[in-house]
Structures are given as C-alpha cells and as structure tokens.
Amino acid sequence: MRENLKQQLRGCGISTSDILLPKKNIDYYKWAVVACDQFTSQRDYWNDVEVITSDVPSTSKLIFPECYLEDDDKQQRIKNINAAMDDYIKIGVFDCYPDSFILVERTTISGTRYGLVASLDLEKYSYAEGSRSLIRATEGTILSRIPPRKEIRKHASLELPHIMVLINDARRLVIEPLVAKRAELECIYDTDLMKGGGHVKGYLVSSDEDIKTVADGISMLYKALDQTNPLLYAMGDGNHSLATAKSIYEDLKKEKGKEALDSPCRYALVEIENIFDPALQFEAIHRVFFNIKLPVFDSLLSRRGGSITKDRVSSLKEASDEIRKDSGCLKFAVICGNDYYVYRMKKAKQALSASLIQECIDNLPEGSSVDYIHGAAVTEEISKKDGNIGIILPDISKETFFDAIIRDGAFPRKTFSIGHAEEKRYYMEARSIRKN
Q: Residue 436's pLDDT is what?
C-alpha cells in the first residue's frame, strides 16, 4: 500500500521524506531560529541569536543570515556552516523519522495556523517568467540573488527549510483532516520560539492511513486544475531558496544525466499551508516614490490604459477603508504631503493594483526612485516629506490569489508579506541532500 501511496503523491509533485529532528535532549528553544532573510537590517537581532545559541547545537550554526551576505568573511562562514552540518551528523545530534510528513501547529499573535512539512519535486517547479508549472513562483525571481545562495547550498550535506508553499484548498481536504485528529498523532516537538516567535508543535504523520488522507486530498485538488495551466503549489515565502535548490538540481542533471533523477537534490523540503487558514495573514507591501511630483506620477499612470478617476479623502484611515471595498475596479491610495487621494482604474488590463504600480516604477523618470515599505503608518510618515509620494496598496485577496497568478503570472516583487517577521518560519526540521 505504501508504494502505491508514494506513486500517487509523486504524481502530484509531493513526497514524504526521511525527516531529521534534534534528539529530545537538545534544547529546542535554542535550536530553532527564524528564517535567514528576516531582520536583514537589524544585526543586533542576529547578534542576540548568536549569544543565545553560542554553547548549544542550533540551526543558527547551519544557516547564513542575509544581513552578513556582504561581509568579507563570507567564504569562511560558509565553510563553518558546512563543517557544522557534518559535525552534527557525525556526533548524532539528529533522530530520523523515515518516510513521513510532519503536521506543524504554529501559534503567533495572528492566531494558530497549521502546515505540512513535505518534499516537493523540483522537476515540477519553474521560476521562469510565464511558467505554467505545477509549483510556481508568486513574485518575480531576481536571478542575481541565486548565485550567492548556491555558494551556500552546493556543498551542504543538509537542507533546512524556511520555504512556505500555499495550496488553494477551500474545501480543507489536505491539512485540516490531520488537524482534526492531531490528539491521536505523536507530538514530536513542543516548544516556545525565541525572540517573539510564539509557540510551535510538530506531530508525526507516518501511518498509511494518514498519508492516504494527504494523498487523496492533494489528488482531488490536482484533478480539479486546468491541466493547461495547473497551478497547485504557489510560493508564499522563500522563493529564492527554492529557486536555488532548482538551479543546483539542474546543474546536477547536466553533470549526471538521468542519474540525477534519483538524487535527493531532486526534492526540496518545504512547509505547505492552506491559503484559507484563518491565521494566515496577508499584508500588502506599500511603495514610496522619491523625487517626483504628483502630476508626473499622474502622467505615468495615464499611459497605462484604462479609465482613471481620483478623489480626495480626509485621512489615511478613510483612504485605507475605501480601497478595501470591492467595486469591480483596481484601487489604491496616494499620499502626497498632507493630501490623501483614492485612485480607481476601470477596464484595467492588470489583475492587481501592484501590477499597475509596477509599470509606473519601470518607467520612472531619471532621478526618481522607489522603496518598498511594510506598514501604512510608516508609508504615511515618509510620504509627508517634500518630493515623496506614498502608494497604499490593498491587501491581497485569498479568494483571487491563485486566479491572479494564473491570469497575470508572478506578481511584482514585494507585493505581499505573510505576517510579521517574527511569524515567519523558524528552522526546525532538516533533510539530507547528499547520498551517503
């Protein structure tokens, strides 16, 4: 039965794995650290992490915080990471949970959300523009960000995922049946997370019955797809990490040919989450234009097509409330000094306001620039300075998220964020990516 289930899963681009977790005598609070692409401008955060984890086994020694990527000791840091991985394997830090999934229960300020740690088949993933692959990027992939990440991964013996992948499961077929019976599953970790990360539990999913639940649910989602454009797994966080794994696998195929199809590098460990999980919070990332006047922005916008109207409002709150209303058109707010406007575009060719604004960004006049800002209040503050214009974008709709990617392709970079930085994935599970 298990082999049939594996084939069923692999037909949908997903697989169980031999998942590694630290032994029970390891301090899980100090073991798990937040995703390496968080707090990139806050070295104090990562300095604190180093102090907390200095004398114990920890994923802090197995990952490369991106705030250090431009430092002169990059190569030595990579060597230290690879050596620590090999050392942890050699001294027996890990227990192995073979041929399994893990159900993750994560509690943060946004609530309790659930995910499934599994491996995805990189044969079914492409980050190319216009891709129609089963596993797909949701935001534009910046190719220049892949080579430095390849340096870190290419000699690594382990992978530790901070990748979060979304499924469009309105009927709650895949993860929620496991959540309903989690009291019957073996809880294999249960710990607070450092520095405001909340709490996390992990439940072992290893029986034929439970794996069949996942296989049947994911198969139902797969069969319902338009097979000419079959988007089953959409990236939530960590696209450049998955793109790096894909690039290394493609290099291996060139070197090894068909032999690479059986390599552990063909798969990447991720956490899959249902986009309809109530605790999964999508936040828009806003924009601020620098050194530009409002008439120039309006002129840029008018060249994008569609019918545009602009209405003055009294405050950020009124503007934000207005752009959240469903009115069958693209909407966004503009802050310029002490003035607030709501813009509407009817008959737009774009599916998202962020796509419309990206076209303006791509055509900014010389001397103007843009930054991407988390939080409407921060955007408002910056936009009040002379020469700046703030763009407040509406939140992404869960109901239209997958349809928008199918229609328009990957969103512009920095369109959305899933929760706050502390709510991102913490490293816990590992998987071997080198044959013994």
A: 54
